[in-house]
TrEMBL record:
<keyword id="KW-0547">Nucleotide-binding</keyword>
<dbReference type="InterPro" id="IPR017441">
    <property type="entry name" value="Protein_kinase_ATP_BS"/>
</dbReference>
<dbReference type="InterPro" id="IPR008271">
    <property type="entry name" value="Ser/Thr_kinase_AS"/>
</dbReference>
<dbReference type="GO" id="GO:0004674">
    <property type="term" value="F:protein serine/threonine kinase activity"/>
</dbReference>
<keyword id="KW-0067">ATP-binding</keyword>
<dbReference type="InterPro" id="IPR011009">
    <property type="entry name" value="Kinase-like_dom_sf"/>
</dbReference>
<dbReference type="Pfam" id="PF00069">
    <property type="entry name" value="Pkinase"/>
</dbReference>
<keyword id="KW-0808">Transferase</keyword>
<feature type="compositionally biased region" description="Basic and acidic residues">
    <location>
        <begin position="15"/>
        <end position="25"/>
    </location>
</feature>
<feature type="domain" description="Protein kinase">
    <location>
        <begin position="77"/>
        <end position="335"/>
    </location>
</feature>
<feature type="region of interest" description="Disordered">
    <location>
        <begin position="1"/>
        <end position="64"/>
    </location>
</feature>
<dbReference type="InterPro" id="IPR000719">
    <property type="entry name" value="Prot_kinase_dom"/>
</dbReference>
<keyword id="KW-0418">Kinase</keyword>
<protein>
    <recommendedName>
        <fullName>Protein kinase domain-containing protein</fullName>
    </recommendedName>
</protein>
<dbReference type="GO" id="GO:0005524">
    <property type="term" value="F:ATP binding"/>
</dbReference>
């Protein structure tokens, strides 16, 4: 049956930058995004299958635009044009005049302005403040960088990094995505979502329009605008005033207004991955509730391995208890560790052959699978992460460097370059923590909090973990 197309606690910083936030400058760009990456659609009736209108959010400024090309907001941001529009507001391309004056090489930003009249202005301002605060907690290479929020000249706005590439929804207009590319995109989506889930934050509106594909191949998750802290914060009047979703990607629990859960994001992730594989929405654009009512079942796309399809099918389950509990659980099932994949080879060896191997070869510590033996797309992804991590490490951005090295080690356990890099980053962090304490800029408790944050990286080498434990007990 075919359908017509209708219209928790904050992450602990290892080091605080001494200047204004200027992260991920390598990901800024000079081309239009096309559509509003931060649009959130209002709740639709549960039995109405909907698909985002490809014509929505044109690049031509309309009469509803609050800011005109050439105007300057708060004596700092000169408007260059409209990037896109959505249910919550308009995203503009702008120049940061302060950066321009400082001769910064990256002066272009994206500026999101909320529509007037959606809700009361004070509630809107509180909602945007919450969005900016949560997004700033999520300093991760696969999550869009949010700089700040403000209110001026009668508008409420937020500034974000400006990127070159295209939205996943536009990429899908070309048809199904080749399986190697699908796996790479899925891997990075999982990594970004897992980072948020581990910090108690649910996206709540993941969909192709909120996934951006950079020209260098990296994936960015956009719009944590209706994200909610599911572990510790209560839903309040601000959340209710601006909360919405896109029904075709919303789990039945979201549509039933149940408390948010990472399993909601897993459902949306499953729908997005299935759509990448087949080029079609797995439930033919029906909402989760309607799919449940009609007892619909998604069809298996071609090209996926049995393990991948089983994981994907469980992610799209219409009952939360049947899904992977969060993005990390999905990741581990969809992408088994190379070590686990090859474990059967080791168990197939006889005790004698194992003994001979150990006696004569005694391999040095390192990856069980050589880098060159990994799939080409995985090699490319790891290589990008390693190169970017080295750049951020050289610039002193230890948080981003640690995250990138951690991602490389998750994908390729034992990778020597990543191991060396994460060791250097931790050594620098320890030195700067000790210096900050000795200079009175950081309390001993603040130091311990940061050390505990460092210990959360599961890929830390054993000796480095022991050192951090020793430092924590000092």
């Amino acid at each position: 049956m075919s359908k017509d197309k209708p219209d928790q606690p904050a992450a602990t910083e290892v080091l605080k930058p001494e200047s204004s936030p200027d992260r991920a400058t390598e990901f800024m760009a000079t081309e239009p995004l096309g559509r509003d990456p931060a649009a959130t659609e209002a709740m639709a009736p549960e039995n109405a299958p909907t698909r985002p209108d490809p014509a929505a959010g044109t690049d031509v400024p309309g009469e509803e635009d609050q800011l005109k090309v050439g105007s300057v907001l708060r004596d700092r941001f000169r408007i260059l044009g409209v990037l896109g529009r959505g249910g919550m507001g308009t995203v503009y391309k702008a120049t940061d005049l302060l950066k321009e004056e400082a001769h910064d090489r990256d002066t272009t930003i994206a500026l999101k302005v909320l529509k007037p009249g959606i809700v009361d202005a004070d509630i809107t301002f509180m909602a945007l403040q919450r969005e900016a605060r949560r997004a700033q907690q999520l300093a991760h290479p696969n999550i869009v960088t949010v700089f700040d929020f403000d209110r001026a000249d009668g508008v409420i706005f937020m500034t974000m990094e400006f990127m070159r590439g295209q939205g996943l929804e536009r990429r899908l207009e070309e048809g199904p995505i080749p399986i190697p590319e699908l796996r790479r995109i899925t891997r990075e989506l999982c990594q970004g979502l897992a980072y948020a889930h581990e910090r108690g934050i649910v996206h709540s509106d993941l969909k192709p329009e909120n996934v951006f594909l950079l020209e260098d191949g990296r994936v960015k998750i956009l719009d944590f605008g209706i994200a909610r802290a599911w572990q510790s914060e209560r839903r309040d009047f601000v959340e209710e005033a601006v909360a919405g979703c896109t029904p075709a990607y919303a789990s039945p629990e979201v549509l039933q207004r149940k408390p948010p859960s990472p399993a909601d994001d897993v459902y949306a992730l499953g729908c997005v991955v299935a759509q990448m594989a087949s080029g079609k929405h797995p439930y033919d654009w029906h909402s989760g509730l309607e799919a449940l009512k009609q007892k619909l079942q998604p069809s298996r796309p071609g090209g996926l391995k049995g393990r991948e399809w089983r994981t994907l099918r469980s992610a799209m389950a219409l009952k939360a208890a049947d899904r992977p509990k969060d993005a990390r659980a999905f990741f581990k099932r969809f992408f088994p560790s190379p070590t686990r994949v090859t474990a059967w080879i080791i168990t197939a060896l006889t005790l004698v052959s194992v003994g001979v191997y150990l006696a004569f070869f005694q391999p040095e510590p390192g990856p069980e699978i050589p880098f060159e033996a990994l799939p080409a797309d995985l090699q490319a992804s790891i290589r990008r992460n390693l190169d970017d991590a080295a750049l951020f490490l050289a610039q002193g951005d230890l948080n981003t460097a640690l995250q990138l090295y951690d991602m490389a080690l998750e994908a390729h356990p034992g990778n020597r370059e990543a191991t060396s890099g994460i060791e250097q980053a931790v050594e620098q962090a320890l030195a700067q923590l000790d210096r900050a304490v000795s200079e009175g800029r950081l309390s001993p408790e603040g130091r311990r909090t940061t050390l505990r944050s460092l210990l959360e990286y599961e890929t830390l080498p054993a000796e480095l973990r022991d050192r951090l434990q020793d430092a924590l007990s000092d």
